[in-house]
Write a structure and sequence with these properties.
The complex is a heterodimer of chains A (260) and B (250).
Chain A: H1 9-16, H2 20-46, H3 50-65, H4 68-85, H5 96-122, H6 125-133, H7 138-168, H8 180-190, H9 196-225, H10 229-246, H11 248-251
Helix pairs in contact in A: 1-9, 2-3, 2-5, 3-5, 4-5, 5-7, 6-7, 7-9, 8-9, 9-10
Chain B: E1 2-11, E2 14-24, E3 29-33, H1 40-47, E4 55-60, E5 63-66, H2 72-81, E6 82-85, H3 97-108, H4 113-126, H5 142-155, E7 160-164, H6 172-187, E8 191-195, H7 199-205, E9 208-213, E10 216-221, H8 223-227, H9 233-239
Parallel strand pairs in B: 3-8, 3-9, 6-7, 7-8
Antiparallel strand pairs in B: 1-2, 1-4, 4-5, 9-10
The chains are: A mainly alpha (260), B alpha/beta (250).
């Protein structure tokens, strides 16, 4: 029986990289839907109706205490069965990635709603008073004064959540989604577990810089949002330097373009 | 021009205002004095609907509304005819000094941006901050922040400005610069209601002094009537230290 040779870390990285696009897809989609869901939950938590507050709180507690792999299995195995037998809709053909997105959107709802709630409450109440006193409507005050400040307070926790999601998302391989982690497992199996170290080190070398880039981007964002001007300036320069250094090929204008 | 009648407000079982009446005429500088917890700040916040009173009426120009049941449209109208200066300055932390002042002009009063900037710069020059247009609030001293707060309030050309202990968070040196600005405003004829613990300031600048205690307006009159002639024992007791009659024997 012939098996593949996966002894070179560099070759393994090259082999794994294309599968990263699938990882990006579910991370971004889960973030998008999770964010919307979290917004709803956060509004419920801050509203004046006790029942809504309790519902949002209980939901958050359940999600926090549930291992994500359990939820993933519930969503992936139970939902199609439920849909087929109760709703009489066959969803067996739905791509696996959507189950992953749904699972993590449900998770992030709980997580991010706490991030949003705490950020909102971190903005001191007098900011709202001041905005109302100069004649802004409550909605204008929220959008123009409260939200930008709350967003600033939320950035560190947002960065945490995105990196957490990137890593937790790797569990998608357990339902057979071939993303970058799934492919690593596949390669390991194809090679009869002869080269686990080169394969998984290659995987680590992909995840690691990715997490660092996300971390740094959020740090720049934090400086940009900081309400002190000096910091804004330096952050702007840093961003320019970063672009020039690493993304130069993206912003280069074709020669002769200025003459037109 | 501004009349409050029978204002009641309780926080839970704590009754803070127990039927306060207040009349402010155009051009008046009304100083509200009184011990901490007497309801001065709450009264001021009720005028601007930052707190909802439990009972009472507010008359401001043509507006005549219930403090409890006022519609949000009327609330907005009252807020756009008044301005508030806060004890802790409460500048918008995410906006520059200039933006702090233009915000109310551009967004609430729909004044074109160029004109708003012109007005804002005028007001900031008036409080002596012409070199701080682009600074952020946390780069300023307390006194400077409070002067921005005053410029922000004056810029919207309100019928009446409400000052909530504008100097209480400042050190004695900075108190001077802020009081100077308020004094200049008083001379220019702007109607003001000032809650303050600065007795000599109230005596010298106010046209009318109101003394509040335990949620009611105990006495009111000209500074002389309150500081010199008032026979109300609680007022005399409160002003004793200011009038240098304090008894250090316990």
């Amino acid at each position: 029986m012939q098996y593949k040779n996966y002894s070179s870390i560099l070759d393994n990285i090259k082999e794994l990289l294309p599968y990263l696009s699938l990882t990006f897809q579910y991370v971004l989609l889960a973030l998008l839907f999770g964010f919307i869901f979290a917004l709803l939950l956060a509004v419920m938590k801050l509203c004046k109706y006790k029942v809504l507050r309790a519902i949002a709180q209980i939901y958050t507690t359940i999600m926090r205490c549930l291992p994500s792999v359990v939820l993933l299995f519930v969503v992936y195995f139970f939902l199609p069965k439920f849909s087929r037998e109760v709703l009489l809709i066959d969803i067996d053909d739905v791509p696996k990635i959507l189950f992953v997105v749904l699972t993590f959107a449900l998770f992030l709802g709980g997580f991010l709603s706490e991030v949003m709630r705490s950020a909102y409450q971190a903005v001191s109440k007098d900011q709202m008073d001041a905005a109302l006193s100069i004649g802004l409507t409550p909605l204008q005050a929220f959008i123009r004064i409260i939200l930008p400040q709350a967003f600033y307070y939320a950035i560190p926790n947002l960065a945490n959540t995105v990196i957490y999601l990137l890593k937790e998302g790797a569990l998608a391989y357990t339902i057979g989604l071939i993303d970058v982690m799934g492919r690593a497992y596949q390669m390991n199996t194809l090679s009869y577990s002869v080269y686990p170290i080169p394969i998984f080190v290659a995987l680590a070398l992909i995840y690691w810089p990715l997490a660092i880039v996300i971390e740094q981007l959020f740090k720049i964002l934090e400086r940009l949002m900081n309400p002190i001007k000096e910091d804004k300036k330096t952050a702007g320069q840093k961003l320019k330097g970063f672009k020039a250094k690493y993304l130069g090929f993206l912003v280069q204008t074709p020669k002769g373009g200025a003459e037109k | 021009m501004l009349t409050l009648t029978n204002v009641h407000k309780a926080f839970g079982s704590n009754k803070v205002l127990k039927g306060v009446n207040l009349t402010v005429e155009k051009g008046d500088v009304v100083a509200i004095l009184g011990p901490s917890g007497s309801g001065k700040t709450t009264l001021l916040r009720c005028i601007n609907f930052l707190e909802r009173a439990d009972k009472g009426r507010l008359k401001l120009g043509e507006i005549d509304i219930s403090l409890k049941h006022a519609h949000s449209k009327d609330v907005l109208a009252v807020r756009r005819k008044t301005a508030f200066v806060f004890q802790n300055y409460s500048l918008f932390r995410n906006k520059t000094v200039l933006q702090n002042v233009t915000e109310g002009l551009i967004i609430a009063r729909k004044i074109p941006k160029d004109e708003a900037i012109k007005i804002a710069k005028e007001q900031l020059d008036r409080v002596g901050l012409s070199d701080k247009y682009d600074a952020y609030p946390n780069q300023l001293s307390g006194g400077q922040q409070q002067r921005v707060g005053i410029a922000r309030a004056v810029a919207v050309k309100p019928d009446v400005i409400l000052f909530d202990e504008p100097t209480s968070a400042l050190d004695p040196e900075l108190v001077g610069e802020v009081l100077c600005v308020i004094k200049a405003l008083a001379k220019s004829g702007i109607t003001m209601v000032i809650v303050t613990h600065e007795m000599s300031f109230a005596r010298d600048v106010a046209s009318k002094v109101v003394f509040m205690d335990e949620g009611v307006a105990l006495a009111s009159g000209t500074p002389k009537e309150i500081f010199v002639d008032c026979q109300e024992p609680r007022v005399k007791q409160f002003l004793a230290r200011f009038n240098n009659e304090i008894d250090y024997n316990i």
